[in-house]
Amino acid sequence: MEFAIDFRPFRLEDARFVNDLRRLESMESLLGGNKRPVSYERDAKWVQDLMLGDSPNAIYFAITAKGEDEIVGYASISEINYQNGTCFWSGVKLDSQKAGRGWGTQVGLKIVKFAFEELRMERCKGEVLEEHDGAMRMMIKIGFKVEGLMRSAVFKSGKHHNQFLLSMVRADYERVKEDLDL
After folding, report:
1. CA nearest 46: which of 56, 60, 33, 57?
2. Structure pTM?
3. All domains of the chain in start order, with CATH
4. Scanning 41, 73, 90, 100, which has its CA 20 to 30 A from the CA of 140?
5. Span 109-131, mean pLDDT?
């Protein structure tokens, strides 16, 4: 499979993009995390901390179109546990022009390829709000399996939301790798 996207490290100037994405109510409402207003300066510090922090249990990727340099989204792997070989695909945020056009699927495939081939993980989990049909379809499409529904797992927008727990283990990844020629 030929990817139409690349991952690159964050740059300080990416903070403007991150802050602009954070202001999109349509995006924030579908993500598992809590929403809060964040200043550009706070996001600039966050990006700088990512660039200089070298966290042993989280990796963030700026997403670009293949051969391009401009950020169009970002994704992360967190809760990296090398002893148990487990991690959490913490999600993806994409420019609204890219969402729903296969970009999320490519990001997901590239994330699991990195998790299983570079980090040598045995299991990668993900979580999706029950009402986020697009994310659920994409995760199943790339090989994640539903483990269950976590009831009232996330409080946002004044109410509790259910959240699906999904995972992919190495055997699932090997099948996807062969099927899609990753």
Report:
1. 60
2. 0.89
3. 5-180 (3.40.630.30)
4. 73
5. 97
